[in-house]
Amino acid sequence: MAKPLPPPFDKARIVAENRRARYDYFVEDRFEAGIVLTGTEVKSLRQGEGSIAESYATVNGDEVWLINSHIPEYSHGNRMNHEPRRQRKLLLSKREIAKLNGAITRQGLTVVPLSIYFNGRGKAKIEIALARGKKAHDKRETIKERDWNREKQRLLRSSG
What we know:
Layout: E1 13-17, H1 19-24, E2 25-35, H2 39-46, E3 56-60, E4 63-67, E5 88-91, H3 94-107, E6 110-118, E7 124-133, H4 136-159
Antiparallel strand pairs: 1-6, 2-5, 2-7, 3-4, 4-5, 6-7
C-alpha cells in the first residue's frame, strides 16, 4: 500500500507539465524548488512557453541542477537573450538536497520534474519528485486501472 501524497503546492498558474512522468515512474516523494532564471526566461515562461518533458534533475555536491529543460528564447529579447536548453540551478534547503542525494545513491531513485508554475506570490517554482521507474507490466497495469476507472464513471453516469 502506497503512502498518501502530501497536500499539493500553491499553483496559481501552471506553465509546463510533465504528464509522461506519472506514466513512466512511481512518484514517491515531492518537493517544491525555486529556479534560478534570467529575466528573458521569466518573460518567456509568463507567456506560457516551456517544456520539461525530457528533463531530469541531478545532484552535484551540494547543488541540484535541472538538465535538458527547454525554455524558448523570449520573442522581444535582444542579443542578451538566454540559451534555451541551458542547465538551471534549483533552490532547495540543505536537508532536502541531502534527502535527494541519499535516495539517489542508496535506493537508485530518479529526480523527475513534474511541473513548472508560478505560485500565488508570482514566483516561478518547479515541482520535482523522487521517482522509481516502472517496468512494462507496471505500465500495462496503470493503463488497465485508468480504463476501468473511466468505464466505472461512464456506467455511473448512464445509470444515473
